[in-house]
Design brief:
Layout (H helix, E strand, L loop, with lengths): L1 H11 L3 E10 L5 E12 L3 E3 L1 H11 L2 H21 L6 E5 L2 H4 L4 H12 L6 E6 L6 H12 L4 E7 L8 H4 L4 E4 L1 H4 L6 H16 L3 E5 L4 H9 L4 E3 L9 H11 L1
Parallel strand pairs: 2-4, 4-5, 5-6, 6-7, 7-8, 8-9
Antiparallel strand pairs: 1-2, 1-9, 2-3
The protein binds guanosine-5'-monophosphate (2 copies), manganese (II) ion (MN) and sodium ion.
The site of one guanosine-5'-monophosphate has 14 residues, from strand 6.
Organism: Lysinibacillus piscis
Protein name: EAL domain-containing protein
Length: 253
């Protein structure tokens, strides 16, 4: 309950901010997308990790106003980068289960795109397999979101105990292979087999693939050989402040 009140106060006091982790296109070496990740700096207790406060925001319902703030901040930021003359980039924003049940989710996304004047193709929403929702309901919701012109990614792919059949029904653009499959890929033959299978399946389904949590060159080599589209991980960059993203591009000029 304490934390719940603190979270409410944090929204009012603007204690949240976003960091952005680049996704690198393995064919071009360019950053085409960044994932927005929320951060909370408490005025007294300091940095609070999202895997602590996001579950509390979900349980308390605060994820609705927080999720809205995150989405609007991310879209505003991408628009700002565009106006600074940076190469066009997508932003990927994580959705929580509670937001999928939010009655006005589609309207909220539409409003935010309008307010920020962001081209919808530059917004990607991430859902996870473990978001248990009636499959017909989920299919309809995702189709409604797709009519806005945005992209949909499945995050933590392969960890959710869900059947693969949803891949036929959901209008998705991208799979994000969970870090769990990638972290031992150098020496684990089972992980190699699973990642190869996911890459091959995604190609046949015309889905893009992002491999997450790449920390070592040997992992990168395996993914390049497997024709993976994008990587996201500490090897290239940790999640960083918006200004650091701008600086990175200025250094390239
Ligand atoms: O960035 P980090 O690895 O510390 O995040 C830990 C977890 O917190 C992530 O795996 C993700 O599930 C969650 N998380 C981080 N940022 C967001 C966000 O903006 N929205 C939601 N819903 N979850 C987030
Ligand atoms: O659940 P989700 O995939 O949205 O969360 C991504 C989280 O994974 C980010 O919060 C980020 O901090 C973390 N992350 C990103 N790259 C790496 C990595 O290379 N190694 C580790 N250990 N964590 C990573
Ligand atoms: Mn994610
Ligand atoms: Na993930």
């Amino acid at each position: 309950l304490m934390m719940e009140q603190e979270l409410q106060q944090a929204l009012i006091n603007e204690e949240f901010y976003l960091e952005y982790q680049p996704q690198v296109n393995l064919k071009t070496g360019k950053i085409e997308c960044v994932e927005a990740l929320v951060r909370w700096r408490h005025p007294v207790h300091g940095f609070m990790p999202p895997n602590v406060f996001i579950p509390i925001a979900e349980e308390s319902g605060l994820i609705i106003p927080l999720g809205k703030w995150i989405l609007e901040r991310a879209c505003t930021q991408v628009k700002e980068w565009e106006q600074q003359g940076l190469p066009s980039m997508k932003v990927a924003v994580n959705l929580s289960l509670g937001q999928l049940f939010q009655q006005d989710l589609v309207q909220m996304v539409r409003d935010i795109l309008q307010r920020t004047d962001l081209d919808p193709e530059y917004l990607q929403l991430e859902i996870t397999e473990s978001m248990t929702m009636n499959i017909d309901q989920m299919t309809q919701l995702l189709h409604e979101l797709k009519t806005l012109g945005i992209q949909i990614a499945v995050d933590d792919f392969g960890t959710g105990y869900s059947s693969l059949s949803y891949l036929k029904d959901f209008p998705i653009d991208c799979l994000k292979i969970d870090r769990a499959f990638v972290q031992n890929i150098q020496h684990d033959t089972n992980d190699k087999a699973l990642v190869s299978m996911i890459l091959s399946m995604a190609k046949h389904l015309h889905l893009k693939v992002v491999a997450e949590g790449i920390e070592e060159v040997s992992q990168l080599v395996f993914l390049i050989n497997g024709d993976c589209d994008y990587i996201q991980g500490y090897l290239f960059s940790k999640p960083i402040a918006a200004e650091q993203i701008s600086q990175h591009f200025e250094e390239l000029h």
